[in-house]
Request: fold
Amino acid sequence: MPTISKGLSMWLFGRTAVLDDFSDRLNHVWTFGLLILIGCIVSWRQMFEHPIRCWCPPEFTHSMVIYTETQCWNSYYIVHRRDEFTSSSLVPLLVRDYTDASSQIQESTTTFTLYQWLPLILCLQALLFKLPHILFYIFHVYSGISFDKISDLTAGYEHKTLVERSVLAKQVARYVSNWCRHLSCLPWRWLSVTWLIVKILYVVNVVEQLVLVQRLMRISDSLGTDSQSYGYTIINNLLSKNQTMWKSSPAFPRKVFCEMKIRYVQNEQMYMLQCNLPSNTFNEAAYVFIWVWLLFVTVVTCTSLGTWILRTIIPVPRNRYISRMMELSANSSCTRNDVARLSSDIGEDGVIVLKLIAANSSELFVADVVHNMTGTVDQKHETAVHSLENL
Reply:
């Protein structure tokens, strides 16, 4: 079992052979870890602290109080109805049987409670942030190149001699050149398209989660009218100087009434108990932070997607990267035509692989690889010219 746990943790957190940028790591590393951490804290508070406290009658024993709090915590619906004593106030009631509650209570709204399931919800949210990264790692192999093989090939680069580095650079250049040669002449190939789909999945996931949190935390009165944006409510709460004027979300009620039936032999006694939910104070504060964090991740991810599309469509950044690598090489004397020829030959997929090699070794090693690839491209170009002359 420890071996399985170690392998799972390495699979989730230890994959360094996948190229990603800041926005990708912000999604599948930082946001994933943040949601898991908050989920663990919420789960610990629900398991080892008292998430609900009920005011019970004096005749209740200690075991009856524990049973009452367990039953009220496991209630699934909140029903808002008019108070019998004060007609102007609305009382949130915890009930278990939605059919009976809806048939007996008039002028009311019902809400399915989710705060009991917050640990599972947070884990599901975290998994959705990790899923695009896992899909990219699975489907990039169909491009014909393996990131793990490149990582293993360049492992221990800093401990090799100059001669060994030169030989390794020729081997890597031959490997990448042969791989690019079997692809089409388009700059967008399987690897680029896969990465584009993954980035779109990141955007769709974070936007959809932001919308769902917005709907969950939306502020409205108990009858479902006068709805306000939760972001607008957060800003007003932060700007408010009086903390008692803060508006709380109905998704995390603080004080509720709990209807419960207890059978004594043949008689059935109905109780309405007033309960306090102290854990919901932390839960709502946690989701306020999550909402702000998701808004930040949404802006960064959408910006990264737009920037990456422009950099892929326009060949200027690709040519600039290859030119910079050639300038780092001490033996390079390539012209602008050589840069354009190599850029069109390897396309965006080749640049992605070169950046992966740089992430696992150094840019100086990539410069040597590009220098050797330039010689391969020139040799291939000369072979094509001779074949045309022979015709």
Q: What stands out?
A: Confidence is low (pLDDT under 50) at residues 1-8, 102-107, 221-226, 377-391.
